[in-house]
């Protein structure tokens, strides 16, 4: 992504230092859209805090962050005991997104049989490889999704001359949720760059407002036309023919095609199903949990601090960024961070291998 005429990824190692004293830089997503701030991470404990507080967030990105967390852990101690403990602590930092566990397990499988004296350099190399692979996966998702968007746009043009294609998305599944390019937004960027007349309805995505704060910000950086809407407006727009397709990301997809994504996704899928609007999830294959069959019953849903619901961050007229409490005193708050959309409501899963209906998903393994 280009920000102020400079190319950025969301996470990167700081080069030019010895393997034993390297650090990792991240874009602090809790400061967006009002400030663009880069934070330097120097140890695994700081990376865990960054994951928990959502300075880094999005399933693919927290997988990459966890991989670099393992590399930072090896700077302190390359013993097997420390390796296993670090892996456990990183895995427990956030429970829902499968990419985090996948990345940690991949690092363990590489590092455990590696001689102790070679583990540090091997860890940095593998973390960088995971990041580079994520970029390629997302670029491929973008191309497969572009084909879908182009076909749908051609169909609409046959019905109505010069019609803009309206795509609704929920939460943030753009480059900020990955190492680069994004998942759900990758096809949109590809379509825009290819000259397709697209417009994006951006759900605000309470309680953390990742749509309003992050998706709207990065779409503006790329120049893609978009409009922020309240979370409850999507169904109304669908009823009136103003949504042509829905594309969301996911934190975990089961082998049967159930999609676990940011809270509120299930309601969008229900509205899309009722109004015959195609509903797609865009995910790289590491987001698919081949061990799970029933998302509603098996996926652990993260319950986050109620403060996220009670307090809203915004900018005052003076330019000061602050938090305000919107609830009556002593009000109880429940804050489930994700929900599960059953496969029966999903039109297709866009992956780096192509687009699959939920019941075809296991064809990826063949």
Automatic annotation (TrEMBL):
It catalyses: 5-(methylsulfanyl)-alpha-D-ribose 1-phosphate = 5-(methylsulfanyl)-D-ribulose 1-phosphate; 5-deoxy-alpha-D-ribose 1-phosphate = 5-deoxy-D-ribulose 1-phosphate. Belongs to the EIF-2B alpha/beta/delta subunits family. MtnA subfamily. Catalyzes the interconversion of methylthioribose-1-phosphate (MTR-1-P) into methylthioribulose-1-phosphate (MTRu-1-P). Also catalyzes the interconversion of 5-deoxyribose 1-phosphate and 5-deoxyribulose 1-phosphate. Part of a bifunctional DHAP-shunt salvage pathway for SAM by-products. Pathway: Amino-acid biosynthesis; L-methionine biosynthesis via salvage pathway; L-methionine from S-methyl-5-thio-alpha-D-ribose 1-phosphate: step 1/6. The gene is mtnA. Substrate binds at residues 57-59, 94, 210, 261-262. This is Methylthioribose-1-phosphate isomerase. SUPFAM superfamilies: NagB/RpiA/CoA transferase-like (SSF100950). Pfam families: IF-2B (PF01008). The active site is at 251 (proton donor). It is an enzyme of class 5 (isomerase). Its EC number is 5.3.1.23. PANTHER family: METHYLTHIORIBOSE-1-PHOSPHATE ISOMERASE. GO terms for biological process: L-methionine salvage from methylthioadenosine. GO terms for molecular function: S-methyl-5-thioribose-1-phosphate isomerase activity; translation initiation factor activity. Keywords: Amino-acid biosynthesis, Initiation factor, Isomerase, Methionine biosynthesis, Protein biosynthesis. It comes from Methylotenera versatilis (strain 301). The record marks 171 as: Transition state stabilizer.
């Amino acid at each position: 992504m280009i920000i102020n005429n400079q190319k950025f990824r969301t996470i990167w190692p700081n080069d030019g230092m010895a393997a034993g004293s390297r650090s990792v830089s991240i874009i602090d997503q809790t400061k967006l859209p009002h400030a663009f701030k880069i934070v330097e991470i120097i140890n695994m404990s700081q990376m865990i805090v960054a994951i928990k507080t959502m300075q880094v967030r999005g399933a693919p990105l927290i997988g990459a962050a966890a991989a670099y967390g393992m590399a930072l852990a090896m700077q302190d101690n390359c013993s097997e005991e420390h390796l296993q403990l670090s892996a456990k602590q990183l895995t427990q930092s956030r429970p829902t997104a499968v990419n985090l566990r996948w990345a940690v397990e991949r690092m363990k499988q590489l590092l455990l049989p590696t001689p102790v004296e070679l583990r540090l350099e091997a860890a940095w190399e593998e973390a960088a490889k995971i990041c580079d692979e994520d970029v390629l996966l997302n670029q491929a998702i973008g191309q497969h999704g572009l084909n879908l968007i182009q076909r749908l746009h051609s169909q609409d043009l046959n019905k109505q001359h010069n019609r803009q294609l309206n795509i609704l998305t929920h939460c943030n599944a753009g480059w900020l949720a990955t190492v680069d390019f994004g998942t759900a937004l990758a096809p949109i960027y590809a379509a825009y760059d290819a000259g397709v007349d697209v417009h994006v309805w951006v759900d605000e995505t309470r309680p953390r407002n990742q749509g309003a704060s992050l998706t709207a910000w990065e779409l503006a950086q790329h120049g893609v036309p978009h409009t922020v809407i309240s979370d409850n407006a999507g169904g109304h727009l669908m009823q009136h023919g103003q949504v042509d397709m829905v594309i969301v990301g996911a934190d975990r997809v089961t082998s049967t095609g159930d999609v676990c994504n940011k809270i509120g996704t299930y309601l969008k899928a229900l509205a899309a199903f009722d109004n015959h609007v195609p509903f797609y999830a865009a995910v790289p294959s590491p987001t698919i949990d081949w061990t799970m069959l029933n998302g509603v019953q098996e996926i652990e849903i993260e319950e986050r601090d109620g403060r996220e619901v009670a307090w809203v961050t915004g900018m005052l007229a003076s330019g000061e960024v602050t938090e305000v409490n919107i609830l009556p005193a002593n009000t109880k708050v429940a804050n489930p961070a994700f929900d599960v959309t059953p496969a029966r409501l999903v039109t297709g899963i866009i992956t780096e291998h192509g687009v699959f209906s939920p019941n075809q998903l296991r064809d990826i393994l063949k």
